Amino acid sequence: MYEKILNATTIPVLEQVVAFSQARHNVLAGNIANLDTPGYKVRDLSTEDFQSRLRSAMEARRRPAAAMSPGEPGFGQNANVAEVARESQTILRHDEVNVGVERQVTEMAKNQIQHNLALTIMTAQFRLLNAAISERV
Hints:
137 residues; mainly alpha; two-stranded antiparallel ribbon; 5 helices; 2 strands
């Protein structure tokens, strides 16, 4: 019952955004830690790939279950949304150019903003659900 309630909100999508931004933060922190390492190539998780996968998973989620066949992935559940961040974490880009610490810190700041925004929206959704369950307005 609770799963159906949660899946009717944007919480599963926000959960994947948070998971992806946490994984990307770890990669970016590793870049800063190894910036002076000879031969080190800067790495990053592809935000464009993550966004396109998340977009297609959300579109599949919006399709009515009647339009999906029982053998199709995601039939009757939000399996597509749950797999997006997990799959995206394995796709690393290697930058051949030695990028400075300024760019890495900038990317970390943008990533942190995305992470905080997703958590803020998720918290608001949980408050709304809590108010609805406890019958308060």
